[in-house]
Design brief:
The complex is a heterodimer.
Chain A (H helix, E strand, L loop, with lengths): L8 H13 L4 H21 L5 H18 L9 H31 L6 H33 L3 H12 L4 H8 L3 H18 L10
Helix pairs in contact in A: 1-2, 2-3, 2-4, 3-4, 6-8, 7-8
Chain B lengths: L4 E3 L5 E3 L1 H8 L5 H13 L1 H16 L11 H31 L4 H9 L16 E4 L11 E4 L6 E6 L10 E7 L4 E8 L7 E6 L6 E9 L6 E10 L3
Helix pairs in contact in B: 1-3, 2-3, 4-5
Chain lengths: ~210, ~240
C-alpha cells in the first residue's frame, strides 16, 4: 500500500519501517517516523485532553506503544492509519480511566450538603438565566426548522459550521468535499436562511 | 455494509473506529456514507476522529516538524526499561522453573537471568543506547567515580540514578554542570520510577569527554538537594 504513494516521502516511511523491522539502526529509523507523525498525533490528542501535560504524556505513550509493536505491523493498512489506531486506543483508555477517577471523586463530593447560602445563590442564578435560556431556545428552534429545509449536503455544512464551529477546510475534510464546494454551500445557505429568518440570523453566525 | 457500533462512556452509540477508517479511505457504499455523514453533523467526538485521521494521513506527504530536544532520548529510555522489566519477569520465571527442575544450578541461573549481559547493557545493542547506573557521591569510596563510555554510533545515552535515601513522591530536578562549575543542562519534572530510581535519557553530544557534577533536588519544599553524583564521560578518540 505504501509503495503506491507519489514522491519520495512515503518511500521513506516504508524504508524506515522495513529497516526497523530488520533491526537495522532501529533508533534512527524510528526517529524518522516520530518526526513525521509527532505533530499530528499531538494535535489529535490535544483535542481530547485538557492540559498540555496530559497531551504530551499520552503522545509519549503512543510512540512507546508504536515502538514496541512496530515489529508486528504488516503493511496491510497505511502506516498513518495503523498509528492513528494506537493513538485513538491509548487516548480512549486514558480518558476512561480519568472518567472513573472523576466519578469516584464526585461520589465523595456528593456527601457534602451545600450550605443554605449556597442553595439560595444557586436558585437566584437559575431564575436569572431562565429568561435568557427561553429566548435562546426559541431562536435556535427557529434556526433549526429553517436549516432542516435546506438541501442535505448544504444542511450538513451549516450544522458543522454552527454546532461544531469547524473551519471551511475542516468541513471539507469531514464531508469529503472540496473547500470551494463548502464555501458555495454556506454562501447559498446564508442567502436561504436570510430569506426565512430575516432579522434572526446575526452577522457572523455562519 | 453492516454497521458496527461502539458505545461511549457517556452511553451514546457511535460507529466504531474501523468504520471511520473505511469512511476516510472512501471504501463504503453511498448509502453507508450518508448515514455516517448524518452522524457526523451531530457528533463532535466522531468529527474529531475523522479530522485526526485526515491530519495523520496528510503527514505522510508533508515536511516533518522538528522534535523537542528531549523527546527521543526520553522515549528510548522508557522503551529500554519496559523491555528490561519484561525480560526480568521472564527471567525470574525461568529462575523459578530452574530451581524446581535442577536444584544444583540455582545460583548460576539466577545470576545469568538477572544480569544477562553484565554492565553497560550489551543486550540493548538493538537500539544502541548506553546506560549507566549512577551511585551518589556519598556512597562512593575514595577516588571512585561513575564512568560512562559512549560509543561513536550512540546518539543518546541513559542514566539511572540511585539515591541514598528513598525518594518521596515529589517532583525532582537534575542539574548537570561541568568540572568548572558551568551549568550544562537542567532536567525538570523528574519522578522516581517504581523501583525508586530516576531514569533520564540525554543526547550524546550534550556531554563531551570530561568530568561532570550532577545534583538531584526537589522542585518543591525549598529546593532541597537529595543527592549529588560525579560522572566521567568518555567518547572514543
Amino acid at each position: 500500500m505504501l509503495e503506491n504513494r507519489d514522491g519520495g516521502v512515503a518511500k521513506d516511511i516504508r524504508g524506515a519501517v522495513i529497516a526497523f523491522q530488520q533491526g537495522i539502526a532501529r533508533e534512527q529509523n524510528f526517529e524518522i517516523l516520530v518526526r513525521r507523525f509527532y505533530r499530528p498525533v499531538q494535535h489529535f490528542l490535544g483535542r481530547w485532553t485538557k492540559s498540555t501535560e496530559d497531551r504530551d504524556d499520552i503522545t509519549q505513550e503512543v510512540f512507546l506503544r508504536a515502538f514496541k509493536s512496530l515489529k508486528e505491523y504488516r503493511g496491510d493498512a497505511q502506516f498513518s492509519t495503523w498509528l492513528f489506531k494506537i493513538a485513538h486506543n491509548t487516548c480512549m483508555r486514558r480518558l476512561d480511566r480519568d472518567l472513573a477517577t472523576r466519578k469516584a471523586a464526585s461520589r465523595l463530593g456528593d456527601d457534602d450538603d451545600p450550605s443554605e447560602e449556597e442553595v439560595a445563590f444557586r436558585a437566584a442564578a437559575f431564575l436569572g438565566s431562565q429568561l435568557d435560556d427561553l429566548i435562546a431556545k426559541e431562536r435556535s428552534a427557529l434556526l433549526r426548522d429553517a436549516t432542516e429545509r435546506l438541501p442535505t449536503q448544504m444542511r450538513r455544512c451549516v450544522e458543522l459550521r454552527i454546532c461544531q464551529d469547524l473551519s471551511y477546510e475542516q468541513i471539507a475534510a469531514v464531508l469529503q468535499l472540496s473547500v470551494g464546494t463548502v464555501k458555495a454551500h454556506l454562501f447559498h445557505a446564508r442567502e436561504k436562511l436570510r430569506d426565512h429568518l430575516s432579522g434572526l440570523v446575526r452577522r457572523g453566525d455562519l | 455494509m453492516e454497521t458496527r457500533n461502539e458505545t461511549s462512556s457517556a452511553g451514546r452509540t457511535h460507529p466504531d473506529l474501523d468504520e471511520w477508517v473505511d469512511y476516510h479511505h472512501r471504501r463504503l457504499a453511498a448509502e453507508h456514507v450518508e448515514r455516517l455523514q448524518e452522524h457526523l453533523t451531530r457528533c463532535r467526538r466522531c468529527t474529531t476522529l475523522v479530522l485526526g485521521l485526515q491530519d495523520l494521513s496528510e503527514a505522510e506527504y508533508t515536511t516533518p516538524a522538528p522534535l523537542e530536544d528531549n523527546f527521543m532520548p526520553r522515549l528510548l529510555t522508557q522503551a529500554i526499561f519496559s523491555q528490561t522489566r519484561a525480560r526480568q519477569w521472564r527471567n525470574t520465571a525461568l529462575v523459578a522453573a530452574s530451581l524446581l527442575v535442577a536444584v544444583i544450578l540455582p545460583v548460576a541461573v539466577h545470576f545469568k537471568t538477572l544480569y544477562p549481559q553484565g554492565a553497560g547493557g550489551g543486550d540493548f545493542a538493538e537500539v544502541n543506547l548506553p546506560i549507566v547506573s549512577l551511585l551518589p557521591r556519598s556512597s562512593l569510596r575514595g577516588q571512585d567515580t561513575n564512568r560512562l563510555e559512549i560509543p561513536a554510533t550512540a546518539k543518546h545515552f541513559a542514566l539511572v540514578l540511585t539515591t541514598q535515601d528513598p525518594p518521596s513522591n515529589a517532583i525532582y530536578q537534575l542539574a548537570i554542570s561541568d568540572a568548572l562549575g558551568r551549568s550544562i543542562r537542567s532536567v525538570t519534572g523528574l519522578r522516581p520510577a517504581a523501583d525508586g530510581t530516576f531514569r533520564i535519557g540525554l543526547p550524546s553530544h550534550l556531554l563531551p569527554s570530561g568530568n561532570y557534577h550532577l545534583e538531584l533536588r526537589t522542585m518543591s519544599k525549598g529546593d532541597r538537594t537529595l543527592d549529588d553524583y560525579t560522572l566521567e564521560v568518555v567518547h572514543p578518540e
